[in-house]
Write a structure and sequence with these properties.
four-stranded mixed sheet, alpha+beta, 6 helices
């Protein structure tokens, strides 16, 4: 019971403070081009515990929130509601959440990765430390022109 109360309290406080500046998928590419920032696409679904972990705990971290809002264009897509967009842009998601990092031309940024997807996507939740490593690796790859 105490764990549930703690989790609910944490989630409620996170709702008050964690605020990524989510951008629509259609607006992200122009914004990326004009501001010279990579696009981070988070693919999730309603009721996904790992997605909620990312949204309400990892993204609530001040450093990650600042990094994503300042250096990336965050986009949030739902696997069911946005299926046509995902298919049209070749962004498959076999597990949630899935993250892709894109350039303004839609190409995927290839970065040093801790998983076996060859630095093209992140599948599943990551803790704050690992996600910080991921977004720093993506930012370096973006600046160095690495893409697929």
């Amino acid at each position: 019971m105490f764990k549930k109360i703690t989790l609910i309290t944490t989630l409620m406080s996170s709702l008050l403070y964690a605020e990524l500046d989510w951008v629509s998928f259609s607006d992200a590419f122009e914004k990326s081009k004009s501001e010279n920032r990579p696009i981070m696409v988070m693919i999730s679904r309603e009721g996904c515990d790992a997605c909620e972990y990312m949204e309400y705990l990892v993204f609530d971290n001040y450093d990650i929130e600042e990094k994503l809002n300042g250096d990336f264009i965050p986009v949030h897509l739902d696997i069911e509601k946005d299926a046509s967009t995902l298919n049209a842009h070749n962004l498959p998601s076999f597990a949630r959440p899935t993250f892709y990092f894109l350039r303004s031309d839609g190409s995927k940024i290839v970065y040093p990765s801790m998983n076996d997807f060859k630095g093209k996507r992140v599948v599943g939740a990551q803790n704050i430390k690992d996600f910080t490593i991921t977004i720093n690796s993506v930012e370096d790859a973006y600046k160095n022109g690495n893409s697929n």
